[in-house]
Amino acid sequence: MDIFIQHYKKNMAGRDYAVGDIHGHFGRLEHAMETIGFDPGQDRLFSVGDLVDRGPQADQALDWLALPWFHAVRGNHEDYAIRHSLIGGVDIENYRSNGGGWFLDMPRTRQKQFGLVFNDLPYAMEIETDNGLVGIIHAVCPVPDWAQLADALGSESARMQAIWSRERIQSLDETKVKNIHAVVVGHTPLQEVVALGNTVHIDTGGWLEKGHFTLLDLGNF
C-alpha cells in the first residue's frame, strides 16, 4: 500500500457525505441513507473506517468497497484483518473479543481476499468542498498540520496513532489542525457529534442498539 492520502475533487453533480463507524451494520446504514434521500447516481459517501466486526453484515464490506460512490479509509478493525491475514501476530483472543469472530472463522483464502482489499485503503482522504479541503481519518490526525500528514504517515508510529488514538477526544483538545477546513473522524462512539477545534467526531454508534448513524454533509459545515 503506497498511497497514504487519497484526494477527491469537488463533487460537481451532487452531495458528499461522511459516515461514522459502520461495524457490519450496512442494512441500518442503507436506511439512514434513505432518510436523507441519498442518490447514488450523483452523491458520494465517505467512511471513516471500521467497516467490519461486531455486526451481522461485516462480510458485505467488499461489496460496498466495490461501489463507485463509496470510499473508505482504513480503521483499526481493518488493521486487525490485514495483520491477521497478511502478516500474522494478532492476539486471537483480543481480536475475537472485539468482534472478529466472523473473520477468524472464514477460510484462509477468503481472509486473504479481505486483507488485500483492506490493505489498499488509504489512511486518510481529502475532499474538495466549497468551504475548503475536508480531511477524513479514522481516529486522529497525528500531526498539527495537515500539510505534514503525507510525510508523517511514512512512520509506523504515526499510522498507528491515525487509526488507534483517542487522545484528542479524551483530553477535549480544541487545537485546530492547520491547512485544512475540517478533519472528520470516528473510532470513539459518542451520543452526538462533537467538534473539537476543526476536528469533528461523527461516530454516533450507528452499530449500537441505541445509537444512530450520522451522515455529515461535507459541503454544509
From TrEMBL:
One MF term in the entry's GO annotations = phosphatase activity
> Which segments constitute the Serine/threonine specific protein phosphatases domain?
73-78
Q: Which domain of life is it from?
A: Bacteria
Give the record's GO CC terms: cytoplasm
Q: Which SUPFAM superfamilies match?
A: Metallo-dependent phosphatases
Cross-referenced Pfam families: Metallophos (PF00149)
What's the protein here called? Serine/threonine protein phosphatase
What organism does this protein naturally occur in? Pollutimonas nitritireducens
